[in-house]
Amino acid sequence: MRARDLLHPRPEGLYCPPGDFYIDPVRPVGRALITHGHSDHARSGHAHVLATRQTLDIMALRYGEDFAGTTQTAVIGEIIDIGGVKVSFHPAGHVLGSAQIAVEHGGVRIVASGDYKRRADPTCASFETIQCDVFITEATFGLPVFRHPDAGHEVEKLMKSAQQFPERAHLVGAYALGKAQRVMRLLRDNGYDRPIYIHGALVKLSDYYQNQGIALGELLPATVDRSGKENFAGAIVVGPPSAFADRWARRFPDPVSAFASGWMRIRQRAKQRGVELPLIISDHSDWDELTETITETGASEVWVTHGREEALVRWCELQGIAARPLHLVGYEDEGD
Ligand SMILES: [Zn+2]
């Protein structure tokens, strides 16, 4: 069997004809296999969804219990037969519940990795390398300029700033699923033991992380009322990036604006967003991790999904690995 007969792009997403299923479809389909809960990969309205328990829970939290017709839990490492195609889920290290999906049929094994990272992250299971013939990789940070610094060190910068400016609130923009909880956990691991204030949009997911055994310490609502701004002086407040354009953000005392994202490597981006304290913390692989992972999988062919495809395709070709971009549309890096 040729790899492209096992999986190939369609407008709805990556399609497997022998198994009649899609991986991370961007439009409603009959049978969807979902790598993780970020909104660009996990959409509501599919007739049947197969995903890890945590991804299914996260989808229910975000979209409501009726997000799909029926659901099936994929147990990590267990093989599921779908129309003669062997499917298995393996940790991707991206956010809680995230998985790579291995698809095997007719002597060909393809791994669709979804979004992934290799750095240690106590908020989710670590990435596991799966040997395969074809490795499908993202390329969000697929340029040699992207080399993520140590995330713990970035959080230290935040704690230092909070110490240095005890009269100012520190507002940290972080994506609601994964990044926000990782930032909070990094603060705890660095010894920050004061309450962390969170925007209402983070409550359900942060509670879910805590229920899953990921300790985030004391989280309090970042509700600003008429009673006075000074309550948040010196506090660390975490909210989704979208909240920072709202009146919500303007009610804090002389806030220091921080943003946790791999894009904060680019000074211009930080400036454009009015970010005073950029924190380079990414839930994606950097250039070295992308290329090391490709090598480790032993794949003879690489398909590149969303991001900066060209440089990674070129790198593969220089290594003698066949590579091509898939030009999938609809993936917006919710959790960069
Ligand atoms: Zn993601």
Automatic annotation (TrEMBL):
Its EC number is 3.1.-.-. One of its GO terms (molecular function) is exonuclease activity. Keywords: Exonuclease, Hydrolase, Ligase, Nuclease. InterPro entries: MBL, RibonucZ/Hydroxyglut_hydro, Xnuc_lig_assoc. This is Ligase-associated DNA damage response exonuclease. It comes from Oryzicola mucosus.
